[in-house]
Structure of Choline-sulfatase:
Amino acid sequence: MTHTYRILLTCLLATLGMTSLATAADRPNVLFILTDDQSPFDFKFYNQDSKLDTPVIDQLAADGMVFDGAYHMGAWSGAVCTPSRHMIMSGRTVWHIPSRLNRNRNPNEGDTALVPQNLPDFTMGAVFNRAGYDTMRTCKKGNSYAAANKQFTVVKDASKRGGTDESGSAWHGKQVLDYLNEREKTKDEDPFLIYFGFSHPHDTRDGTPELLEKYGSINHTKETKLPEPNDKQPQMPPNWLPKHPFQNSHSNVRDEVAVSGVWTNRDEATIRNELGREFACSENIDIQIGKVLDKLEAMGELENTYIIYTADHGMAIGRHGLQGKQNLYEHTWRVPLVVKGPGIEPGTRAQGNIYLLDVLATICDLTGVQPPETNEGTSFKPVLTGKKDTVRDVLYGVYCGGEKPGMRCVKKGDWKLLKYDVPSADVQETQLFNLAENPHEFLPQHHNKNVIAMTGVTPEKHQTNLANDPNFAAQRQEMETLLQEEMKRLDDPFVLWDQAK
Ligand SMILES: [Ca+2]
Ligand SMILES: [Ca+2]
C-alpha cells in the first residue's frame, strides 16, 4: 500500500465514520447492476401508477438514494447500448470514445487526442485490478465494449433473453452467486467489484410463464394473435401516440419496425402486451438481484458494499409513437438510478444531473481508488453524502445513429430544448418543454381527442411544445445558445441547420 493511497483511504474511512484500521478487508465492495433498455418510468419510485412490482429494487431505494436526473449522454450508433457501455467503462464523453467493430463509427475516432488508443487499460476493470480489487462481470455479449470487458479478472458474458432460468436473467444471477460461493469457500477477503449486468428487459422480452400470467401478457411471435387488453396489463403510457409526428432521423431503425411482438404496430393490444412482457422481464431481474443481496448479507458483506442500480438507457414502448431507444425524450434519455451503501442516508432523493459516465469517477471516489487520467466523468459522491443536490447545471444529449446530424437536446433546470435535423426528409424541428409543467413532454398531437380517448389523459393547454410560443422566445434563445456551447465543448462534429458554422 503506497503512502498516498493510505492517506486517501484514511480520509475516506474518516468521511464514512469508520474507525477501524485501514486494512484491505475494510475497503468497500462495489456491486454495479446494469439492465439493458429500461425506462425509469417503469418503476413505482418514479411513477406511482406503474404496475411493475420490484420489491428488491424498491427496498434498495428505501435504504439508499434515488436520482431524478440520471442520463446517458447519447449515441452516434443505432445500437445505443454500444456508446453507453463505452462511456460507463471509460468515464469518457460520447464523442471521445471508440466505436465497435468499425461499424457506426464515432467520426472523431481517428483523432488520438480525443479518443486515446490505449483506453482499455484505463477502463473500470483494469483500474480496479490495479487498485487491488477482485473484479468479476457477467452481462450480455453483443453491442458492448469488448476490450474493456475482458479487463475484468472473471468474465461470464452471454446474451440471455429467454423465458427459463438457463436462458434468461437467472443465468446472470447464478454467475454472481457462483462467484460469491467460490470466494466464501476460499476465504477470499480482498474487496470486490462485481459488474452484474443483465440481457433483459431488452427485446426479445420473453418472460417466464408465471410472470407473463401476472402481467396478462404472452410471448408474442405472430402479428395477429394477441390477448385482448386486460386489467392485469400495464396501462397505456400517458404520452402514447399512434405514430411519431415527423421523421426523427431514424424512423426505419430495427427497434422501430422489426422488434418481435411489436413491429410497426402501436395499437393498444400490442403496446400493453409488450409492456407486460417488459414488466415480466423486469420483475424477474428483481428476483435475481434479491438472491445476490441475500447471499451478500449471509456472507456479512452487504453493509460494506456500494450497490448501484441503473440501465444503459431508457426505452419508449409506445410513448410518443416510438418503440425503441433511438430518441431523446425523457423516457429514453433518462435512466433509473438507485445507490445504496455506507454513508448514504436511507430514503433520500436527489436531482443529481449525472451521466452514466460519472459512475467510474464515483466508485473510485467511494473506494479511495485513483481515477484514471483518461476519465472525464465527475464524481457524484458529494450528492450521495448529501453535500450537494447536483454535480452540473447543464445536460447534453445526442442521437446521431441514423441520418445526420440527427437529434440533439440540452436541459437546464426545468427547461429542455430538443432539435431534429434530417436533411433528406426536410425536417428541421425544434421542441421546447418545461418539464416541471409538462413532465410527459406532451406535443400538440397529445391533445387530439382520439389520443385522449386511448390514454385517458387530457393534457392541459400549456402542456405542449413551447418552441414557437412568443412568450418563451427568450427562454428558447438561451437554450439554443447553451446547446451550441455544449456541442462545441464536447467536440460534437456536427452543426445544426440554424446554428452558426
Ligand atoms: Ca441497451
Ligand atoms: Ca482475491
User: Anything to note?
Assistant: Residues 28-393 form a domain with the Alkaline Phosphatase, subunit A fold (CATH 3.40.720.10). Residues 13-22 have pLDDT under 50 and may be disordered.
